[in-house]
Amino acid sequence: MKWIGRRQSDNMEDRRGLSGGKAVIGGGIIGVIILLVKLFGGENAQQLTPILDQFNQQSTQTESRALTPEEAKEGEFVKTLLADNEDIWTKIFEENNLTFEAPKLVLFSGQVQTACGGASSASGPFYCPGDRVIYMDMTFFEELRTRFGAEGGDFAVAYVLAHEYGHHIQTLLGTSAKVRELQENRSETEGNKLSVALELQADFYAGLWTHYNEKQNAMLEPGDIEEALSAANAVGDDAIQKKMQGQVVPDSFTHGTSEQRMYWFNRGFKTGDFKKGDTFAEVE
């Protein structure tokens, strides 16, 4: 993928050089102290407050290190991808008389605290609607290649980031909130189908972004689309279930099959039509 020399976003925070942050409110010793304060209050609360402050200070202490040259380059790449998404979605929203608001992105290593709760690198990249932030641990992409058989490459990163950006678009449009509302009154199987439609629409948005960004920046190189499709194929529910448990349980799907994920990415990429992404009407 051609990316060097383009605008880079200011909406990224790189925490990969930090370690030791363990402020997990509601858990561990700090959580016990807070619980005691709430239960007993009064004089006991006053006695416990200095202890709580001490634990908070200790828990938020961090050690920092310099990023490696490879990490620094990764950061520059992600900043460029983020700027590309900002530019393209601003344009798409303007064309459809909608108001756009860019999300933040956090690069982390190991563990991270979010408005949606704590998460580890095992969660893979994700978007938290609570704070409207995309979280990514770059080691995920090596695991995607070595454990799940994806081709890897820089455009696999571009696809995954664009997919998570698609979830932000769904938050702005109210789609995510509507799905959560509908799921409250549905069975688990029916709720899972709604989750699949939501995820496939994010894949469609990733393809749509690719379409527009290619027109604007001529970014694609040979093999890039294949890298995206390989990543989409690797993270299909059927592929993951077969790999991890040896059998496929369609009613438990929450993201869609490999075939579905590749289809909807391609549909966005080939049509370039924002209105062609109604996965809810087409996913049974």
TrEMBL record:
Keywords: Membrane, Transmembrane, Transmembrane helix. The keyword RNA-binding does not apply. It is found in: Membrane. It comes from the Bacteria. The chain crosses the membrane at residues 21-41. GO terms for cellular component: membrane. It is a single-pass membrane protein. InterPro entries: Uncharacterised_pept_Zn_put. This is Metalloprotease. It comes from Flavobacterium fluvii.
